[in-house]
Write the structure tokens for this entry.
Amino acid sequence: MKPLTCTTLSLLISSVAAIWPVPVSHEYGNTVLFIAKDVPFYWYEPGARNVGSITDQIPFLFGFNSNQAPHAQDSSDLKLRTQYTGPVPSEKSETVTGKGITSDDIVVYAINSTWATLFQTNFYPWKFHPRDWDEPSPSQSNTSYISRVDVKVLKSAGPNVTKPLAGEVDESYSLTLTKEGVASISANTSVGIARGLTTFSQLFYAHSDQQHVYTPLAPVQITDSPKFQHRGINLDVSRNYFSTADIKRQIDAAAYNKMNKFHLHVTDSQSWPLEIPSMPELSAKGAYRPDLVLTVDDFAMIQRYAAIQGVEMITEIDMPGHTSSIHYSMPELIAAFGIQPDWNTYAASPPSGTLKLNSPAVYDFLEKLFDDVLPRVSPYSAYFHTGGDEVNKNAYLFDDTVKSNDSAVLQPLMQKFVDRNHDQVRAMGLTPVVWEEMLLEWNLTLGPDVLVQSWQSDEAVAQIVSKGHKAIVGNYNYWYLDCGKGQWLNFYPSVSANYYPYQDYCAPFHNWRLIYSYDPLHGVPAENQHLVIGGEAHMWAEQTDPVNVDRMIWPRAAAAAEVLWSGAKDEMGQNRSQIDAAPRLSEMRERLVAKGIGAEPIQMPYCTMEGNVCSLGNLG
């Protein structure tokens, strides 16, 4: 069986082999198989207790009949955990327990999600076939159905499966689907199972009768694993308020694109929407409105909602800059607040203001803040992001504990500030994350465990890893999703002409092809490339709110997701082809829309229906 390729069968591949991100190895056939809502899923695991004891404990869960259960075919050391048909009754992900999740939770959620994707949120693929295409018919006498789906967890769960450091969890999987209708997803971890089931769901389409679901691809053989360990979205929920429903949609989309990190930039200068029970005034006065707040239960729920999908939420409370919103409740902690009209001399955005750098009161505040937040992060993540970007030295001219903008004065104070924060983060068993300025502009000595997040240039990434730190990339010239919307600032007539035509600093708009063209390893010497652990696409929210957030992120962030999962280069070492990617990304967009995510189209139906007619140039 030979793998189909875009070069040899461009129209066919664009219409039927549209897995996103593209797997490492994939082979497809052309046999049509239907799948019914009562298809049985068999869940195997190593060293499982006997079947009777499992079903005795949860008799309501699966409707299990051990006499009908097949044995694992390719893993003799696996034993059947249980079997079910249809959705699994399970704890709702919205339930707040204050505890983390288990590897089993991830498997159950993944199976449920796969069933729901197949039968409730699938899509009819008319946009990916010519007008006169022959849709597979479920009424033919030779119609075949998938008889079962085997889900095989090959190894016992490790200690950090649900809150891992980058690289601690094996996300690889293998997937087979025979012409006879037996599907098997095997992985070493529950997270790998989740990734494999995501791919499995992408093999299927809804029939136009809205009653049947089928794949035209059998037999299928896929082996897959990610190129990078850290693959994420950064969502700013401070500049504009986002409800938990808005945030959950982004987590759903990230998980479906096999991303494994969700970075929540939760506070900033403009508002403080995170409830801090030990200091309720922070959100009561610092949020835009007292009701526009992520409560304690909200915060726990979204972390759990991410973790149960194999997505680790990394919470960021940026400091010492980007903290002006603290002034509304505790003005004594903030220097240079709200300077007008020349706020840009003291801050990156209004209102100006920064935590005082040599204040015992600030240290007491941070101790109390971290004592409140970190125990609520720890069940769901191995990381905590302490920020550190765009700290304006001029603001400390107004800091009564410093009264200087001299780097020689400020640098040791910043070192002490960051050391204090990171010591407390580590004491909770978490690993600190900072923005690149702390290392490259402030020249701080950071612990070897600290992740450094870069956003300004490829040169910065090379500098970070040359100092021995692991780097997270996200060059604003490629992976900032807010760019090209124009200035959100207004200009008085006296200076307006200087800013015409009012482009923002990172214009133009970064379309999916530009995002897709970015190589996270560009400019990094080969001997240091192992320290580039991945990257994030960033959604800063000055001009994004719940009305447009879905289309601002998706499907452009999916382009970054494939780069991070599959690599920027193909198996021949060449830049990945837009010709191959465009129809697959268009299909991913349709799948996201079917899931209730308002992703933008990337081409009109004419382009996806007619093969490569919307392409320029030739195969060379």
About this structure: The chain is about 30% helix and 15% strand. Residues 1-16, 48-74, 91-98 have pLDDT under 50 and may be disordered. Residues 407-427 form the longest helix (21 residues). The longest strand covers residues 213-224.
